[in-house]
């Protein structure tokens, strides 16, 4: 801290930002109100003495007004909504172990694991054919010359997801559509346009963050349209206790587009295990179907992964699961040159320079690593598919767009057998 006086700004020097605080000081004082706790004169006065807030030390409050401040501080614990139940979807299913990374294991262990991955993949999976279809509601947007290449790629993904929903008969009237990790809500906005009678449906967007430029903002003026945005972490969401769901008499459809890693597993568990609520007379058969565009398998965790039963049947432990997630990144870390050079180790997430010749030594070229990474992703997705099958759903994996549109081009779809 540098207390050098300046009449234009507070004398508190912010080391992290390498500049003085830009707030104005109090009258003839050196410091602004927030940093006045560094002013010895003010601190010696009972009426002006300040202290760091016990709830959040990033801001301060008057010592004499501490009790009143704690009642209205933005960092205070607020009353939780009825649908909040701490860690309902994210309970620890096993003991934590130290995280292991690819760079930490020997060539022999990595070779043995790759052999095991290939064996499991060949036993349970096969390459998927591309099933990119479209929905007419997006035709004009796809042909709009104002949309750039990136926008068109997103529109093609959404069009294919809606096309598959139409084929699965998931775009029915009197349905409650729940989008997890909704972000700006663009997918839901297209679903609203795709259903025949949007006013008979409900549209619920779940996201833990507050988004700017939301697509659902422009829909709030339609009084007959039920669009609801709920800000909560999926880990703590008891879906059946959302009032608009507990009062819903029709079917429910769960959707996601590129919900990262563990969040996909939390959403699956939320749909499978928190819709049934005896208090609200809800049962799982109300969930008509699911369509989830999958991504970011390297962010999956052993504690939340819903496909553990399948992997454990194939003798994978927590250590191998962590390595599996790391190897999965090989599929989407960018196309490497077919020859080996100093950049060839870019797929190694640890970026350890001492390992730059490792893949050449192990005869793991770029194409080979990419294919192994893809197989890891499909094994993780297959475990999720088995989880849905165990809950009495017809489930499968589809390749809903070509890789040129998105490297994360696999979706998990499921239909309730009871409907």
Task: List strands and helices in order, with pairings.
Layout: E1 13-14, E2 19-20, H1 40-43, E3 50-52, E4 60-62, H2 66-72, H3 107-124, H4 139-143, H5 149-167, E5 176-180, H6 186-194, E6 202-207, E7 226-231, H7 243-246, E8 252-260, H8 261-273, E9 287-295, H9 308-313, H10 318-328, H11 358-361, H12 366-390, E10 393-399, E11 410-416
Parallel strand pairs: 5-6, 5-8, 6-7, 8-9
Antiparallel strand pairs: 1-2, 3-4, 9-11, 10-11
Distance between the termini: 67 Å
* Sheet with most strands: strand arrangement: 7-6-5-8-9-11-10
Which secondary-structure class do the elements indicate?
alpha/beta
Count of DSSP H/I helices: 12
What is the H-and-E element order? EEHEEHHHHEHEEHEHEHHHHEE
Mean pLDDT: 87
Oligomer: single chain
Query: Beta-sheet strand percentage?
Result: 5-15%
What is the helix content? 25-40%
Largest sheet composition? 7 strands, mixed
Shape: globular
CA-atom Rg in angstroms: 26 Å
User: Low-confidence stretches at least 5 residues in length (pLDDT < 50)?
Assistant: 1-6, 334-353
Q: How many strand elements?
A: 11
Quick recap:
With 419 residues, the protein is α/β, with parallel strands linked by helices.
What would the keywords be for this entry?
14% strand; alpha/beta; 419 residues; seven-stranded mixed β-sheet
Would you kindly provide a written description of the structure presented here, covering whatever features stand out?
- With 419 residues, the chain is α/β, with parallel strands linked by helices.
- It is built from 12 helices and 11 strands.
- The protein has helices at 40-43, 66-72, 107-124, 139-143, 149-167, 186-194, 243-246, 261-273, 308-313, 318-328, 358-361, 366-390; strands at 13-14, 19-20, 50-52, 60-62, 176-180, 202-207, 226-231, 252-260, 287-295, 393-399, 410-416.
- The strands form 3 sheets. A 7-stranded mixed beta sheet has the order 7-6-5-8-9-11-10, sandwiched between helices.
- Strand 1 (13-14) and strand 2 (19-20) form a beta hairpin.
């Amino acid at each position: 801290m540098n207390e050098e006086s300046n009449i234009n700004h507070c004398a508190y020097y912010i080391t992290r930002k390498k500049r003085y605080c830009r707030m104005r000081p109090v009258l003839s004082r050196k410091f602004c109100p927030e940093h006045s706790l560094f002013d010895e004169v003010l601190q010696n006065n009972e009426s002006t003495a300040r202290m760091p807030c016990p709830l959040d030390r990033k801001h301060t409050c008057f010592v004499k007004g501490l009790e009143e401040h704690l009642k209205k501080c933005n960092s205070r614990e607020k009353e939780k909504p009825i649908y909040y139940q701490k860690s309902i979807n994210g309970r620890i299913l096993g003991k934590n172990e130290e995280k292991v990374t690819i760079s930490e294991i020997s060539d022999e262990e990595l070779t043995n694991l790759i052999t095991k991955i290939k064996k499991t993949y060949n036993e349970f999976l096969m390459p998927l054919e591309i099933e990119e279809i479209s929905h007419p509601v997006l035709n004009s947007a796809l042909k709009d010359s104002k949309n750039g290449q990136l926008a068109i790629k997103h529109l093609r993904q959404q069009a294919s997801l809606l096309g598959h929903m139409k084929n699965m008969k998931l775009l029915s009237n009197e349905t409650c559509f729940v989008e997890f990790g909704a972000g700006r809500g663009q997918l839901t906005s297209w679903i609203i346009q795709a259903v025949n009678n949007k006013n008979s449906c409900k549209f619920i967007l779940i996201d833990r963050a507050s988004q700017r430029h939301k697509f659902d903002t422009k829909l709030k003026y339609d009084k007959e349209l039920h669009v609801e945005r709920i800000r909560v972490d999926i880990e703590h969401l008891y879906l059946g206790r959302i009032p608009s769901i507990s009062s819903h008499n029709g079917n429910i459809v769960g959707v996601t587009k590129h919900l990262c890693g563990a969040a996909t597993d939390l959403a699956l568990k939320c749909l499978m295990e928190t819709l049934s609520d005896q208090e609200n007379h809800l049962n799982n058969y109300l969930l008509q179907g699911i369509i989830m565009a999958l991504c970011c398998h390297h962010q999956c965790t052993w504690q939340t992964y819903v496909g553990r039963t399948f992997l454990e049947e194939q003798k994978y432990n927590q250590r191998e699961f962590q390595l599996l997630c790391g190897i999965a990144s090989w599929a989407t870390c960018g196309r490497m040159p077919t020859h080996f050079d100093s950049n060839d180790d870019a797929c190694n997430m640890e970026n350890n320079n001492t390992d730059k010749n490792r893949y050449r030594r192990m005869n793991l070229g770029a194409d080979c690593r990419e294919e192994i990474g893809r197989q890891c992703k499909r094994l993780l997705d297959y475990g999720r598919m088995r989880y849905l099958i165990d809950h009495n759903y017809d489930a499968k994996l589809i390749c809903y767009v070509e890789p040129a549109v998105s490297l994360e081009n696999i979706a998990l779809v499921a239909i309730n057998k009871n409907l």
